[in-house]
Amino acid sequence: MVLPRTVGGDPGTELASDYGCPAPTELVPDPPRPPTGFCYPALRPALDELLSAAPRPETAGAVEQVLWAQLPFLPLFQPVDLVVSTPAADAVTGIGPGPLTTGPITGAQRWRAPAG
Question: Low complexity: which segments have biased composition (predicted)?
Answer without folding.
Answer: 98-107
